[in-house]
Amino acid sequence: MDISTISDEACERLFSGRLTEADGILADIGWFLEDVRSVYCESISAATRAMHPAAVAAPIVQPALWPPEQHRSCRPLRSWWYPPAERSSSDDLAAGS
Amino acid sequence: MEPGDNLDLALAAAQANAEWGWNGLYRNLAPSVTGYLRAQGAAEPEDLAADVFLQAVRAVKRFEGHGAAFRSWIFCIAHNKLIDDSRYRRRRPVEPVAEPAEESATPVGVEEQVLNHLSEDRVKDLLNRLTVDQRDVLLLRIIGGLTVDEVARTLGKNSPAVKALQRRGLACLKREMSSVSVSV
Predict the structure, then answer these.
(1) What is the pLDDT of residue B108?
(2) What predicted TM-score, i.e. pTM, was given to this entire model?
(3) Which of A4, A93, B33, B100 has the fewest CB atoms within 10 Å, measured from its CB?
(4) B101 contacts in A (CB within 8 Å)?
């Protein structure tokens, strides 16, 4: 069977990880999709974890590694997280009040 | 399971300015958003993902819909940020700076590191064989978990066009994977 004629239903089974025996032609692609998820979905660096709101109570970290001329979006880790209405209270928190 | 793990509950809480709501949304979506940006070759995927969530924070009160629609909306923002970032970098190329090596939380053996690297190279190589449109569709489906209709809205195409790109992308992958296995 030519994969370009594969049915929409078989495609949906592929993307939802529910291939059947009848979908044998798609088996290796199914494994490839798992490889893609494995490579890209779990590779969250420490920098991303540091932007998690749970980390905002920590002091702003390592400014020396984020010189503005090298990182266009360099900003204090804390300020972007809170909605605008709450930013003043987070600034108070930063000031230690 | 925490309430924040439920996307619908987390969204409602975030719209009510509850911090646990944003915790839940971030925990749910940040890995796949960052992964999508990284798979699309963004130079600084974590920075770009932060911009995506910043825009979401600013606009969330105007958002209407449930958790699944929010997921689609976030990926729409991410895709548009990616396009903007690509245009910006084409106009203002910068020298890449080597980031300090991260310390892994758990030690990984040399053999496992080599296998991980080979797997990543293989994935990148196969994805690079796709056209831009085919890669957009497949990555939004694989990493974003979006439906055909959601991908169509994100990319500004109609659903039949997305299905055609999906089918051609899968056929290309199949062809490339078969040619690699023959040559081995």
Answers:
(1) 61
(2) 0.72
(3) B100
(4) none
Tell me how far apart the alpha carbons of residues B61 and A82 are, in angstroms, rounded to a whole number: 13
Chain A positions contacting chain B at CB under 8 Å are 2-4, 6, 8, 11, 14-15, 25-26, 28-29, 32-33, 35-48, 51-54, 65, 70-73, 80-86
* ipTM of this complex: 0.79
**Three-state DSSP class for B96?**
coil
Give B108's Cβ-side CA count (13 Å radius).
Answer: 11
Residue type, B60: V
Best B19, B51, B162 residue to mutate vs chain A (most A CBs within 10 Å): B19
Q: How far is CA B55 from CA A83, A93, B134, B181, in A?
A: 10, 23, 27, 44
> pLDDT at position B3, please?
63
pLDDT of residue A66: 40
| Structure-token match 């911009």, residue found | B51
Interface test with B, best of A40, A43, A87 (most B CBs within 10 A): A40
